[in-house]
């Protein structure tokens, strides 16, 4: 692979204009992922309908980029807009599983994995225990072929009669075993969309049966983040701005919220914050109203407000949802975040794109920093320089499931969670701030 890569490099050197992009693409392909290539959020096609909207919005940014860099986009990996670079060779050393690359979500590695060519690989059968509807997909090979998965030798079924012969069974949120003998080669996967507070406990007999997990957590086997950011070039995390994001904004902090009793006491935090800076709370817990489906509500974030409270309803490890990615990052507003640890946001968000509440000792201190940003357009704009340096990608969940089932067999890897409930719940969430849990949040100050 290295030899071929070198040859390819020589050829491309001639096209000097393309080189930076080619290097990026090769880096994506060949190098262990640098820290800067922040991994993360979800795009499991699991919830396809919502996802589609998100990606349409992303397309705006991607299209701007594509028009400016038409020639280069063909050398971006296939999962980026306009990207055509696909994995050409099987890499037996690919880092796909959690133990291959601890701390890394491996989403890009999984998307760039492929099987050896000219090998007649048998189709793997994947049984969706909760039916097709739960995933918004159809049966057979459609999902893999339509998405041009690099590994597409899989077939989806929802027929319980396939339980004995399926290569893998995917359980969503619950586990009701099929009444057939299990082959030791069959892979059982547990998928959770929500955080531990909002997922039901498994029966004791079900805690030690799963081989893999698939959740938003980055130590899951198949990470299914809410959104996943990828830089075009991991070395370029900022761009000069051609506009002033503070222009015409007259209001300070907005928050859209409907659940007033979240475990992490976010409402109390917001109310304390509002003593020191204007916080407009929209919805059931506040004095402001804007109908949920009215697009003008989110538009206010682009036009009127400087800051948006992207507060999750629970403080759980790696738990960062659309509140941050869509309401926040995909509008021209600076998100203030509460949910996962500051270090976890740093690993999954674009560089310098938000402010974490735990960077400040108190709501009062946060407010005084926000007032400072409010008066300094340069400082405010420094939080928007990531825009245009990458994309939130579709992470092609089922492509990755298929790749992993094949990879597992090639490696003859065997693994299972002794107690998947312990893995999922123990130490995963806190009802207070992370720093009072004895977690070190000091090393996260670099974000702001
Ligand atoms: C601010 O308002 C002016 C006047 O209405 C308009 O021309 C300009 O485009 C606005 N700027 C932004 C960034 O929205
Ligand atoms: C899956 O887990 C079971 C135990 O729950 C184990 O017996 C089996 O060997 C594992 N299979 C693979 C392919 O890892």
Protein model, in words:
With 448 residues, this protein is α/β, with parallel strands linked by helices. Helix content is 29%, strand content 12%. It has helices at 2-14, 19-30, 48-68, 70-73, 107-111, 142-146, 266-273, 295-303, 322-329, 342-348, 363-375, 377-381, 397-411, 420-425; strands spanning 124-128, 154-157, 168-172, 187-191, 212-214, 229-231, 251-256, 279-282, 305-311, 315-316, 334-338, 355-356, 390-392, 429-430. The strands form four sheets. A five-stranded parallel beta sheet has the order 2-1-3-4-5. The chain is globular. The model is unreliable at 1-68 and 439-448 (pLDDT under 50). It binds 2-acetamido-2-deoxy-beta-D-glucopyranose (2 copies). One 2-acetamido-2-deoxy-beta-D-glucopyranose is lined by residues 243, 247-248. Pfam families: Glyco_tran_10_N, Glyco_transf_10. It is a single-pass type II membrane protein. It is found in: Golgi apparatus, Golgi stack membrane.
């Amino acid at each position: 692979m290295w030899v071929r890569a070198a040859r390819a490099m020589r050829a491309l050197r001639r096209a000097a204009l393309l080189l930076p992009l080619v290097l990026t693409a090769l880096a994506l392909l060949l190098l262990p992922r640098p820290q800067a290539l922040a991994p993360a959020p979800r795009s499991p096609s699991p919830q396809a309908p919502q996802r589609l909207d998100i990606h349409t919005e992303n397309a705006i940014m991607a299209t701007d980029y594509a028009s400016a860099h038409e020639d280069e986009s063909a050398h971006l990996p296939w999962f980026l807009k306009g990207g055509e670079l696909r994995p050409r060779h099987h890499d037996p050393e690919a880092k796909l599983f959690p133990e291959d690359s601890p701390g890394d979500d491996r989403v890009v590695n999984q998307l760039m994995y492929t099987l050896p060519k000219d090998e007649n690989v048998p189709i793997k059968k994947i049984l969706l225990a909760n039916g097709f509807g739960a995933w918004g997909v159809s049966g057979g090979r459609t999902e893999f072929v339509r998405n041009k998965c690099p590994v597409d030798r899989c077939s989806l079924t929802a027929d319980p009669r396939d339980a004995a012969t399926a290569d893998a069974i995917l359980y969503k949120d619950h586990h009701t075993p099929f009444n057939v003998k299990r082959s030791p080669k069959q892979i059982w996967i547990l998928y959770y969309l929500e955080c531990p507070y909002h997922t039901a406990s498994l029966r004791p007999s079900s805690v030690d049966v799963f081989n893999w997990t698939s959740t938003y957590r980055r130590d899951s086997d198949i990470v299914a983040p809410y959104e996943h950011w990828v830089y075009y070039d991991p070395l370029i995390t900022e761009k000069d701005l051609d506009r002033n994001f503070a222009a015409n904004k007259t209001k300070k902090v907005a928050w859209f919220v409907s659940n007033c009793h979240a475990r992490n006491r976010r409402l109390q935090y917001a109310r304390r914050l509002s003593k020191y800076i204007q916080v407009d709370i929209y919805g059931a817990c506040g004095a402001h109203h804007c109908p949920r489906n009215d697009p003008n509500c989110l538009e206010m974030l682009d036009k009127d407000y400087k800051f948006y409270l992207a507060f999750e309803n629970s403080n759980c490890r790696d738990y960062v949802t659309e509140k941050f990615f869509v309401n926040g990052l995909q509008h021209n507003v600076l998100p203030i975040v509460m949910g996962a640890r500051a270090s976890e946001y740093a690993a999954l968000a674009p560089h310098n794109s938000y402010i974490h509440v735990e960077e400040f000792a108190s709501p009062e201190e946060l407010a005084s920093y926000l007032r400072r940003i409010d008066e300094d357009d340069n400082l405010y704009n420094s939080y928007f320089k990531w825009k245009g340096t990458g994309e939130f990608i579709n992470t092609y969940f089922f492509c990755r499931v298929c790749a992993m089932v094949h990879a597992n067999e090639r490696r003859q890897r065997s693994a299972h969670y002794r107690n998947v409930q312990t893995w999922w719940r123990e130490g995963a969430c806190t009802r207070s701030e992370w720093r009072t849990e004895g977690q070190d949040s000091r090393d996260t100050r670099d974000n702001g």
